[in-house]
Write a structure and sequence with these properties.
By secondary structure, this protein is mostly helical. The chain is built from 17 helices and 3 strands. The protein has helices at residues 3-12, 42-48, 51-60, 66-78, 84-99, 104-118, 127-152, 170-179, 185-198, 205-215, 220-231, 239-254, 262-273, 293-306, 316-334, 341-350, 358-379, and strands at 28-30, 35-37, 40-41.
Length: 400
């Protein structure tokens, strides 16, 4: 490479591919002021569409008619139950989960891989086969999460034969399978909306991973496993778990009486001074705030005000007051807004969802987006192969 070429390449380098257009999609548009799924803005979807409708929109490509939605919902319900081999795997991995050598995201990734071995369409990348696989993955991911949590808690598996209760919607059934208690309509609605908010977000790290894998003409299950591995990271999907762990740490240090006091400001200043990474804040695209965040914050705050206690033993509103104080400090001191992961942690905690299952639930939502992108990649494929700039030693002789 000549000096001029090397200099030009270095000038064009964008670490993390920031600002680089790496593909074209008809699925989603992420803009400073809007998030659009196939022409529908996220506030509109959150208010008026169920997650089942949103998933149909993403995967099939248009808003479902009443008859299409009825058939789609019935098909999802019919696919919820897990094959026996997956259930046996979940049982076998419980000791590792309890020992901490396995975490729910890793278990979910392996369970999806096993589903691939058992899916009759696994090696078929046709549009029809991909849609069937998408439907199965969408239906069975919540079942994996629910059964896993039952086994972690040492309770009998809920609804093993049918994958929960066929009369419950997608979000409500996920909560039921995890807890054994059928949720009230408000809990079900909040989780349903959170799934819609998390369903799709164009070429984020995990979705880009699935498209890179799909571009090699690998299968959908393999691409999804790659997406799960990417989403596990604390800089991506794992941020909701880490945000809640941070708030729990602050609460332990300052106590409920310290919320809103200088003690929280001092805690945050120590974090700034030590350059600690504070999860749930900032976004590569949304520089003026993630417009999904206030939707989920409002819903979670409403639940907290109605629930007098949460699993931590504090008034649920205390967690939101703490979160709001932390948000205020971040905005005043760093000019950084919260992203959707911050209110997600607070909302799921208020609902009693175990923190290690936050990111698996993210998978349950994002499965619709991933599968949509995998199908789009297969339908109009070109191998994804970027260039790099070599920064190693100059050429030299082995026997020199």
């Amino acid at each position: 490479m000549t000096t001029a070429v090397a200099n030009a390449a270095q000038a064009a380098l964008a670490r993390g591919l920031e600002g680089i257009v790496a593909g074209e999609t008809s699925i989603c548009s992420v803009e400073q002021g809007k998030l659009i799924y196939r022409g529908y803005e996220i506030h509109d979807l959150a208010e008026h569409a169920s997650f089942e409708e949103t998933a149909f929109l993403l995967l099939v490509g248009h808003k479902p008619s009443p008859s299409e939605l009825s058939r789609w919902t019935s098909e999802l319900v019919a696919e919820r139950a897990l094959p026996a081999a997956v259930v046996e795997f979940l049982r076998s991995v419980v000791p590792s989960l309890k020992a901490g050598t396995a975490v729910p995201m890793d278990v979910l990734r392996t369970a999806v891989s096993i589903l691939g071995h058992l899916d009759p369409d696994c090696q078929d990348n046709s549009a029809q086969a991909n849609l069937r696989k998408s439907r199965r993955l969408l239906a069975r991911t919540p079942t994996i999460i629910g059964h896993m949590q039952n086994l972690i808690d040492g309770r009998p598996i809920v609804g093993q034969d049918k994958g929960g209760d066929p009369m419950l919607g997608h979000a409500a059934n996920l909560l039921y399978m995890m807890t054994g208690t059928k949720p009230g309509p408000e809990y079900a609605r909040v989780l349903d909306i959170s799934l819609t908010l998390y369903a799709e977000h164009d070429l984020n790290a995990s979705t880009f991973t699935t498209r890179v894998i799909a571009a090699t003409l690998s299968d959908m299950h393999g691409a999804v496993c790659g997406g799960i591995a990417a989403l596990k990271g604390s800089l991506h999907g794992g941020a909701n778990e880490m945000a809640m762990e941070m708030l729990k740490e602050i609460m332990r240090d300052v106590g409920e009486t310290g919320i809103g006091s200088p003690a929280v400001d001092d805690w945050m200043q120590r974090a700034f001074d030590t350059k600690r990474k504070l999860m749930g804040f900032g976004h590569r695209v949304y520089k003026n705030g993630d417009h999904r965040a206030p939707i989920l914050h409002k819903l979670g705050r409403s639940l907290a005000e109605k629930d007098t206690k949460n699993p931590g033993g504090h008034a649920a509103t205390a967690w939101f007051r703490l979160g709001e104080h932390v948000q205020k400090i971040m905005l005043e001191k760093k000019k950084i807004h919260p992203n959707v992961d911050f209110p997600c942690g607070l909302t799921y905690f208020t609902m009693g969802i175990p923190v290690p299952q936050y990111t698996p639930i993210f998978v349950a939502a994002r499965m619709s987006g991933w599968c949509s992108h995998i199908m789009e990649q297969h339908a109009n494929n070109r191998l994804i192969r970027p260039l790099s700039i070599y920064s190693g030693p100059p050429e030299q002789k082995w026997n020199g």
